[in-house]
């Protein structure tokens, strides 16, 4: 039988995990933040299926943005142009098989890049003006990363150091459990340079091809 203290500990851990996955609330009339965007694709492997699904979600989100703001969709951007317009891609839910990806995402657009591509001005909507979510600088490189942690406080500190680094433009959490995490990092510089910079900020990076293993180092 579980003790009251142990039950409280599990409930607190579950609440923290929920907060980690849930994005901040944004004004519902902000067309630059599209929520509940479907992302589905099938491919020869799970990674490719996910990439195709995310590309599809970005396009759907862009069409929603144009419709909500009264813009035209007669000429839609390429996949690479759309990716450069997206400031944040947040996974709301996802399901994967060896050949299929299915999920729902929140897609947040960079107003300056959308304005540059469409010739129209975007201010973020809402009565308060400005964006409800922070817009990071655009990434020029992406890596898949994973880490192990012995406690939630260790994970929170690792995540804080990543987000505080000037080398990281964005962090998309793919999966998170009580002892491990997998995420996609958007980098403002080439991966090798970013790894060196992160090592200097109190993280230890082990590179395995296109994937990183991240752990807490000394300092930071």
Computed CA radius of gyration, to the nearest angstrom: 19 Å
Shape: globular
Number of domains: 2
- Largest beta-sheet details: 5 strands, mixed
Q: What is the distance, rounded to the nearest whole angstrom, between the alpha carbons of the first and last residues? A: 41 Å
Q: What pattern of helices and strands is seen along the backbone?
A: HEHHEEHEHEEHEE
Total of DSSP H or I helical runs spanning 4+ residues:
6
> What number is the mean pLDDT?
77
Strand order across the biggest sheet?
A: 5-6-4-8-7
Structural class, judged by helices and strands? alpha+beta
Uncertain runs with pLDDT below 50, 5 residues or more? 7-12, 15-28, 124-137
Q: What is the number of beta strands?
A: 8
- What percent of residues adopt helix (DSSP H or I)? 25-40%
Strand percentage: 25-35%
Which features would summarize this protein structure in a list?
about 220 residues, alpha+beta, Alpha-Beta Plaits, five-stranded mixed sheet, three-stranded antiparallel sheet, 6 helices
Please describe what this structure looks like.
This protein has 220 residues and is an alpha+beta fold. It contains 6 helices and 8 strands, in the order H-E-H-H-E-E-H-E-H-E-E-H-E-E. The strands form 2 sheets. It has a 5-stranded mixed beta sheet. It starts with a helix and ends with a strand.
Question: Layout of helices and strands, plus pairs?
Answer:
Blueprint: H1 4-21, E1 33-42, H2 46-69, H3 79-85, E2 86-96, E3 100-109, H4 111-118, E4 141-148, H5 152-164, E5 168-176, E6 180-187, H6 191-200, E7 203-208, E8 211-216
Parallel strand pairs: 4-8
Antiparallel strand pairs: 1-3, 2-3, 4-6, 5-6, 7-8
């Amino acid at each position: 039988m579980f003790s009251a203290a142990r039950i409280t500990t599990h409930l607190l851990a579950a609440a923290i995990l929920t907060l980690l996955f849930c994005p901040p609330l944004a004004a519902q009339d902000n067309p630059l933040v599209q929520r509940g965007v479907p992302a589905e694709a099938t491919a020869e492997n799970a990674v490719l299926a996910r990439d195709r699904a995310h590309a599809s979600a970005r396009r759907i989100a862009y069409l929603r943005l144009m419709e909500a703001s009264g813009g035209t969709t007669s000429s839609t951007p390429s996949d690479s142009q759309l990716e450069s317009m997206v400031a944040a891609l947040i996974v709301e839910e996802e399901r994967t098989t060896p050949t299929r990806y299915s999920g729902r995402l929140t897609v947040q657009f960079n107003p300056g890049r959308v304005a540059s591509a469409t010739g129209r001005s975007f201010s973020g909507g809402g009565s308060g003006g400005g964006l409800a979510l922070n817009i990071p600088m655009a990434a020029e490189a992406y890596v898949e990363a994973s880490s192990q942690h012995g406690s939630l406080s260790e994970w929170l500190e690792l995540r804080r150091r990543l987000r505080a680094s000037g080398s990281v433009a964005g962090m998309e959490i793919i999966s998170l459990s009580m002892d491990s995490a997998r995420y996609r990092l958007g980098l403002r510089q080439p991966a090798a340079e970013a790894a060196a910079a992160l090592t200097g900020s109190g993280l230890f990076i082990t590179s395995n091809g296109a994937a990183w293993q991240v752990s807490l180092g000394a300092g930071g």
